[in-house]
Amino acid sequence: MNKAIQNNAFFLVPLVLSLLFFLRKGIQYAMMNRYLPLCILVVLLLLLLLGIQRSERAFFRLSKIWAILLIFWSIARLFISIVSQVTNTFDEYHLNHQFGLYGVGLSMGMLVIGVMIFRNAKKTEKAKSIIN
Amino acid sequence: MKQVFFLPLLFLLACSTREQLPSVDIGDLPQSEIELQKMIIRQLAGEEDIALSNGEKYRLNSRWTKEERSISIRYFEAFLQQLDLPTYKHHYQMPNSNPAVDLLIEPLRGTNVYTILPASTPSTEYIIIGGHYDSDGENFPGAIDNGSGVALISSVLRQAQNIENRNKNLLVIYFDQEEENISAGSIAFAKFLKAKQYNIHSVHCYDLIGWDADNNKEVQLELPSPNIKRLYQKHADSLDIPLFTTQAESSDYYSFVKEGINAVGMSQAYAKGDVSGKKDSPEDKYHLVNFAYLASSTQLAFEVIKELLHE
Looking at the DSSP assignment, which residues form a beta bridge with residue B200? Predict the structure, then answer.
């Protein structure tokens, strides 16, 4: 892996964390014969690996796309959380819990992670292009 | 660079942290079946505190949150311990009904609790009786829905211990998450039984069995096979209990029917409108339960199970 990527902990740590989170989710659902989350993650990982092989630029670009998807994921969850709290939509504990305080915490965490990946990918990419 | 490995590890550890709850101290069980049922509904529907092994008390205002359901599980453990029966926990997780939703949220997680009263002569065949223990919302005590079903199966289990010459095993199960719209607990358990290739004679689910406004003792059978219907009818006739059948496809019994298992549901005559009007509300409380009705329904269930165990 390129030194610029390795040394940028503020980019790499959130990226690894987010991938681990969705990997866990993917494996969890795959064990229940639901393969969509795992398929999406595998495609993403393959693209990231291909990107790293091809050029740093491609890798950072893909990371930014992943970050945007994460941000969308978080915003969608936050939106559902807010609407459900206002309208009292979920009388099922399972949903109430996932879109309640715990869910908001998770969504906020992922939002921060998404923003960190995006910003640091952009910054590192910019710095590299100046050096080059 | 170390952070790259350290932080994810910390994250995974944080994810695996589990809250530890004390066990329940249920004390001695009342001798009479009706007193036993009263005690179970009183404690599970928040009319009376549950004693915990650490000396503290816990009041179950509902059986809805994870903590409340965990306390309920410990309650069943304590009850089964009093009967000298083992407790088995069936932990499950289920995907969401729409695969796209899987991307957004976690799967459904729950725990069914069951025990097995073995046949007196070696047998691989099982009769299963069950009822769900969760209630339908925050601060919904669920005395009738389904404290009554839980009390019924608990009483049938205790009485079945005294049946001599049981030719089949009796599996008694308290289902989780029936109220989560899709009867998650029973669906997961039906799949578990199929996967483990259990030899099942029949499954009998009891739900909403504590309200009888017209005091006619009438019960409703849901989706019975002809043999099971005949059996219930025979005992209902001898106990002078009016009985009618419906073809409703919902709740726990239907989870088994879908898997090709011979299953039936029994409940109060709600298809004829015999419901309290307090179902799924904070008013589904202990004082609403018609214990004479619960006792007659329990008697019917027991006679059916007794005959099946003897067959």
Answer: B126
